[in-house]
Design goal:
single chain; 329 residues; mainly beta; 2 helices; 33 strands; PbH1; signal; Beta_helix
Length: 329
């Protein structure tokens, strides 16, 4: 294997190592300090085989750096890091993970990883995040998929997707090509809570909603994104930029154009869910919408026990209006 690890050892660590060598064989004092943790390193990779090896061998604090090039295959990481010692997978957009099916990149139990800069294309799904807390996906490009682009699943809480571009998904034509998918349909056991989706460009040619926020998930934030719904199929009700089925989400300062029906929607797929959403500062251009409602924000199951707040700072161009409920200043 040609993987190269560059150790970053501090002067203090080097001195400690020399001292340990000099005193080999001498019993340690009862109050001696514990050994210092292994120093973080950078793993340079340039082939698919090297990448698979690095994903397996990386330790908390390490960085895996991809050279520009194509990396064919399906890639998986399952080592958990920590908030203070993340594992980072990074490269430019010219470092392209190309799957021939399945998941392009699967973070399975790989909590506190950062994935930055790379491109993921081909396969069924782009970046799948399972049972992994605190994952950050930053400045990636995801496209050319049969189904969804980025999926936070199996109680992958506290994740962030930011500054990324997702387009050309759902190519199997079944309306299951969401740009971003949070949670699991028809279950309340997937607690992928507190996921933030910030400053991304999603679309065109996304075969499902740009963002689908499932029942069972709560407390996320969707802000500063740009949506282009050109390519929505209408299958499985994929007729809006965002469909909120979870609770207590904040949807703010997003911009959308091109939709087959409404801009943003809430639904109660399970009793007590699809509630507590706050919409503010969103701009909706419904020119060309073909549905029978054509609202910027369509709210279902609105009641005293399942409220939604639509602020007057939301705006709409064309269509039939801003919302079907009262507006809050």
């Amino acid at each position: 294997m040609r993987t190269r690890r560059t150790l970053l050892i501090s002067a203090l660590g080097a001195t400690a190592a020399l001292a340990a060598t000099a005193t080999a064989g001498i019993p340690a004092a009862a109050d001696a300090a514990p050994p210092a943790p292994a120093a973080a390193g950078t793993i340079e990779v340039s082939t698919a085989a090297e990448l698979k090896s690095a994903l397996t061998s990386a330790s908390p604090g390490d960085t895996i750096h991809l050279a520009d090039g194509t990396y064919p295959g399906n890639f998986k990481a399952s080592t958990a890091a920590s908030p203070g010692a993340r594992i980072t997978l990074t490269g430019s957009s010219k470092a392209v993970l190309t799957a021939g099916g399945g998941y392009g990149l699967h973070l399975n139990g790989a909590s506190y990883w950062t994935v930055k800069g790379v491109t993921v294309t081909g396969g069924q799904k782009g970046i799948m995040i399972d049972s992994a807390k605190g994952v950050v996906v930053d400045t990636v490009t995801v496209h050319g998929l049969d189904m969804e682009g980025v999926h936070f699943r199996k109680s992958s809480s506290g994740g962030v997707l930011t500054n990324s571009r997702i387009y050309d998904t759902g190519n199997d034509g079944r309306g299951m090509g969401e740009g971003v998918y949070v949670g699991t349909a028809n279950t309340l056991s997937d607690k992928s809570d507190g996921v933030q989706i910030l400053g991304n460009t999603i679309g065109p040619d996304v075969g499902g909603e740009a963002i689908d926020l499932k029942e069972g998930t709560t407390g996320g934030r969707v802000a500063g994104n740009t949506f282009d719904g050109k390519g929505l199929t209408g299958n499985h009700y994929d007729d809006s930029w965002i469909d909120v089925k979870g609770n207590n989400y904040v949807i703010e300062n997003n911009t959308g154009k091109n939709t087959t029906n409404n801009g943003y929607e809430t639904h109660s797929q399970q009793s007590g869910w699809g509630c507590g959403t706050v919409f503010r500062g969103n701009e909706s251009n419904l020119s060309g919408a073909t549905g029978d409602k054509q609202l910027a924000i369509n709210v279902t199951n609105f009641s005293g026990s399942c409220g939604t707040t639509v602020h007057a700072s939301n705006t709409v161009t064309a269509g039939k209006g801003l919302t079907n409920i009262g507006v809050t200043p």
